[in-house]
Amino acid sequence: MKHALIKPALLLLALALAFTACTEAGKPDPANTAAPNSDSADRSSAPDASATDAPIETLPVNDAGVPVFEVSDFGECAELIARIVPDDGENDLHYAHFNADGSGYEGGPVSFFVSEGKLFLRDPYDALFSSVFVYDLETGEGSRLFDHPCEEDRFAPFAEAGGLIITNNAIFDPVSGESVKAEPVFPSEDIISMYVTDEGVFQLAANGGYYISRLEYDPANLSGSAPKWSSPEAAGSIELKEDPPETLFTAEGAEAGITSIYFSSYMGECPDGARCFKAELSEIPDKQSVQGEHTELLFLKFDSAGNFVRAVSPEKGYDALYGGCEAYYLGADGYICIMMGFPDALEVYRIGL
């Protein structure tokens, strides 16, 4: 069966997102440059969506106003680029396991990045997540970089560019061992993803709205370049409807047993101006609940005019993950990379929508 149909069990708000178009990938429209307050949790600095004529992302609905759209077959959209069986050696991928007395935790890598034929993963080699596991996608060989990140960056997205490991607060050269602090504009917990283009290294962050910042540094002279992230520019104007603000679509007045779909994160803009979102399906347990237990991960794409293009959901759901091990980001090429850790192996896919 090529497609699965989302039945009329879905309920969502009619309006949630309004985005201003970016002039180029990684170069947002400078007219929307409202900067967030990175030192507080105040999210009142979101750009004013009503002040733009931006397209509205909407889903197809039936005559009753219920969303009905096709979810493409995962096998048609996704390419498996790595499947790694965890083990205990230094140059193996590591999983964390509960101790015999039940203490500790279980889980796999917390973040990853694909670059130049290699897969970089921050895995629990030790309790401090102080290294990056490197997997050669062609040979299948593993190695390890001990980069010792800042405490706040251990669980945050990172990037690899020109042989350097780049986090929100630092740049590390694994060849020389040199590590240089970078001046951030957002706390690390606000960073959604990083991506690399010919124009540099960028990060997408959520802080009262969605923002893009570019790393300003000289890779040939790290210590002398005083690396810092540029002043953030608005990735788009977003009308935030719920608390927490990451919940952009949600169920309202749902009956027990109804499934809701809500957009939990904007993922970024593709080279052709299309936009991608992460969404989740949630079972509503009772009439008093707005959202329930997450049951399915969903990725959706809308064209530059806000029209629905395609949706895809991984074949294995949340209940199949090992310790909730999953991460994802939209690459500069417009493909979504997703990492999913299962009890027997970790799988990384490249998804084209």
Our Rg estimate from Cα atoms comes to 20 Å
Quaternary state of this entry equals single chain
Strand tally: 24
Based on CA inertia axes, which overall geometry fits? globular
Mean pLDDT: 76
The neighbouring-strand order within the major sheet is 2-18-19-20-21
* Tally of helical segments: 2
- The helix content is under 10%
Going by helix content, strand content and strand pairing, the class is mainly beta
Strand content: 35-45%
Major sheet: 5 strands, mixed
Unreliable runs, pLDDT <50, ≥5 residues?
1-54, 238-259, 286-292
Give the helices and strands as they follow along the chain.
EEEHEEEEEEEEEEEEHEEEEEEEEE
User: End-to-end distance, in Å?
Assistant: 18 Å
